Amino acid sequence: MAKRRANGEGTITKRKDGRYQAAAYVYRPDGTRHRQFVYGKTRDEVADKLTELQEKTRQGIPAASSTMVFGDFLTYWLAAIAPERLKPATVNSYEGLTRLYIRPALGKKKLNRLSPADIRRFLTEFKAACLCCLRGADKERPEEKRSCCAVGRCCKRRPSARTVQYIHAVLRSALQQAIREELITRNVARIVETPTVTRKEVRPLNAAEARLLLKTARPHRLYALWLLLVSTGLRRGEALALTWSDVDLANSQLRVRRNVQRIRRELIFGTPKTTRSIRTVPLPKHCVRALTQHSEQQERERLVAGEKWQPTSGQPDGLIFTTATGSVTDPRGLNRMLTTLCRDAHVHRVRVHDLRHTCASLLLAQGVDARTIMETLGHSTITMTLDTYAHVMDTTLRAAAKRMDDALNLNEPDEESEGEAKPDNED
What we know:
By secondary structure, this protein is mainly α. The protein folds into 2 domains: 64-191, DNA polymerase, domain 1, CATH 1.10.150; 207-403, hpI Integrase, Chain A, CATH 1.10.443.10. Helices cover 49% and strands 9% of the residues. It has helices at 43-58, 70-85, 88-106, 116-128, 131-134, 137-140, 161-180, 188-191, 207-217, 223-232, 236-240, 285-305, 331-345, 352-365, 370-377, 382-389, 394-408, 415-421, and strands spanning 11-14, 20-27, 33-40, 247-248, 253-256, 259-263, 266-270, 279-282. The chain has a 3-stranded antiparallel beta sheet, with helices on one face. A 3-stranded antiparallel beta sheet has the order 4-5-8, with no helix packed on it. A two-stranded antiparallel sheet has the order 6-7. Strand 6 and strand 7 (266-270) form a beta hairpin. Helix 10 (223-232) packs antiparallel against helix 12. The longest helix is centred in the last third of the chain and has 21 residues, at 285-305. It starts with 10 loop residues before the first strand and ends in a 6-residue tail after the last helix. Residues 137-146 have low confidence and may be disordered.
């Protein structure tokens, strides 16, 4: 006689339509338990689904259902699914957008009753609302810190078009997971048209301003970092995660294979933004010289620091751009440093990321083709390169037109020669 399965282990049965079904008790997001069913064409398929369901239950991860409210599904998605598919920084930003904006507006809607009209209405109201009030300040903060609209003085700070687009992306991604789990039949966020974003024109430093900034940064202990950012277009997190083993000074090149980001209160090392971001970048000679000098300077700092030289827990060995005590440099601190450098150099204020745009602009001005710039910057597609830097390609395009003139070498005939060459009309 077969041993009877214990309570909570789940059951697998064959349905009249030939499919198999399994049932097990799982946690809801509110902490209560309920019986949930999974289905499949074969017993093995259902057994795998049942095992996955039970594993989540053992870990205390709530299971989703089609009748749960959307806010609970978002909690489940962000806790159980998103961390496996998205990078930590992306999950962190999604959690913030969900907590501040999506859950207060759509959280009480049933997942299976959410409609395109709900999404469209939410996005329309979100775009027009005051950011202070969207965050529910008047409900969560003391009386003296109530939202501006609650006290009759609207700050008129509206969400940017990019923020609206991100909100829409979160909705699409979450509801697509609900489709994968067969909780809903269509992604209503996909039906709603994606909000358009007007790109802000990038204002990088020109060649003269870049030289002035680097001249001002020459005495700075991280001069090699500023030079590298302008010369190679590395992202901030990529540059700060470089180790000496990533750099080959003899062959004048470096390898980008990790980055560092601040996630809440921690500095997390991870893989670069895209697979194309893992790349080898040639180094100009002035960067090789600066890095050599920086290596000698770092060794002196290590000797001066002595026992105070304590790398941060979890950081890779041999970081190039550290603090004076050997710990990883906080990416947020670079913006403050750069603001001071811009002020001292008397150039317009730029962000650290704008140095990446500066690098691309300088390369374009020197006639470097877009494909090479794409590889240098680590863009995922050449379209991204062309779209981002189309406004600074005027010089290159004019040079291409001039080369076409030189290649064809066509001289415009004068009026007299045109008259002589014109054939007579024949009867």
